[in-house]
Amino acid sequence: MIGIDIEKISRFEHWTEDGVKRIFTEDEIKYANSFVNYLEHLCGFYCVKEAFIKALDDEGVAFTSIEVLHTETGKPYINRTPLIQSIMREKHANILEVSISHTKDYASAVVLIQ
How far apart are the C-alpha atoms of 88 and 95, rounded to whole Å? Predict the structure, then answer.
């Protein structure tokens, strides 16, 4: 199963703090805010969440249930919370790969579930 998403970064310029908190976890917000170009990172996280939902073909997953973290080397991954682990078992999947890319104007993400 594969999901992909692309978004225009400017879409996030006028989001309120409450709007951001409805979509992103505290750790995602903290990570993004550690960069000057924080909107690129938030947009990338949003793309991962959309791509994950598309790969699952399940729109019932809350965005804040999907948390994007990073390894020590900076590779993004989806936090395997009990809910995510349950979804993966239900789909008979154990491999979950994530890739994020962004430019000045757009962010995109691909999620592969096997």
Answer: 9
- Quick check: pTM over 0.85? yes
Within 10 angstroms of residue 35's Cβ, the number of other Cβ atoms is 11
Would you state the structure tokens that stand for residue 97, as one six-digit string? 């790969």
- Report which secondary-structure segment, H or E, holds 111: strand 106-113
Residue pair 53/3 in contact by the 8 Å Cβ criterion: yes
Residues 63 and 74: beta-carbon distance below 8 Å:
no
Type of residue numbered 48: V
Consecutive sets of 10 residues in the chain, 114 residues long: mean pLDDT of each?
Answer: 96 92 96 94 96 87 94 95 90 91 96 93
Structure-block tokens of residue 78:
């989806």
Spatial contact of 52 and 61, defined as CB atoms under 8 Å apart: yes
- Contact between 5 and 100 under an 8 Å Cβ cutoff? The reply is no
